[in-house]
Amino acid sequence: MLIVDRLSKSFQRDGREFAAVDGLSFRVDTGEVYGLLGPNGAGKTTTLRCILGLLDPTSGDVLVDGYRVSEKPQAIKQRIGLVSASAGLYQWLTPREILDYFADVYSVPPDVAEKRIEELSDLLDLKLFLNQRSATLSTGQKQRVNLARALIHDPPVVLMDEPTLGLDVVGSQVVFDYVELLRTQKRAVVVSTHHLDEAGRLCDRFGLLFHGHLRNEGTLDELRQQTGQPGLVEMFVEMLRDRRSSA
């Protein structure tokens, strides 16, 4: 469903070119939750932006549902839902108005949009505040609206960037339940987070990025065999040690 194929992205810094992502390849199948993990500067955000079509790759490509981002960036956007901690709500609109607006942006027919809003309201328990101004919502309620917004156009792929940032235990559980829903709906999901304990609960497989390269990939058991480390935290500590020693 999602294929990242030898993706590279370079930038200019201090008059010199550096590769934020360098020959990165991985795939995420339907019904799979893939954890894209790495320390700051590993290339996670650049990778997500390339997948979304917000950055043009220097080389390589991304395929979503058979469409190449290099050829059909708009079609790619239609097939991806984004959940990001940095995504805000229009404070003077209600959740219903926000969902209606994004359904229109994605060219969802009004009758289909109305049905999806009702379905998402049931799934994510939005009904009590669906017609309430977003400025009055709690952090957890706003995150529920963000989760619904990502699905209003029924995308086969969902990207989640720090989805539990700033949430309490109850709010985080909503995200866990949401990911399980996406899994049962056979969507391909990419989760990027610094909360390694949560990543361990959410994800089926992991890709560990280091200096733009995919250093290790696999299930948690496979990563343990590859790295000789018992958990994700220890794997990260080892990567940070390597970064310091190579600096």
Automatic annotation (TrEMBL):
Sorted keywords for this record are: ATP-binding, Nodulation, Nucleotide-binding, Transport
Q: Which molecular-function annotation in GO is an example for this chain?
A: ATP binding
- Coiled-coil parts of chain: none
User: Can you tell me where the transmembrane regions are?
Assistant: none
Superkingdom: Bacteria
Family, according to the entry, reads as follows: Belongs to the ABC transporter superfamily.
Q: What is this protein called?
A: Putative ABC transporter ATP-binding protein YbhF
Species for this entry: Caulifigura coniformis
Lineage, uppermost ranks: Bacteria, Pseudomonadati, Planctomycetota, Planctomycetia, Planctomycetales
Gene that specifies this protein: ybhF_1
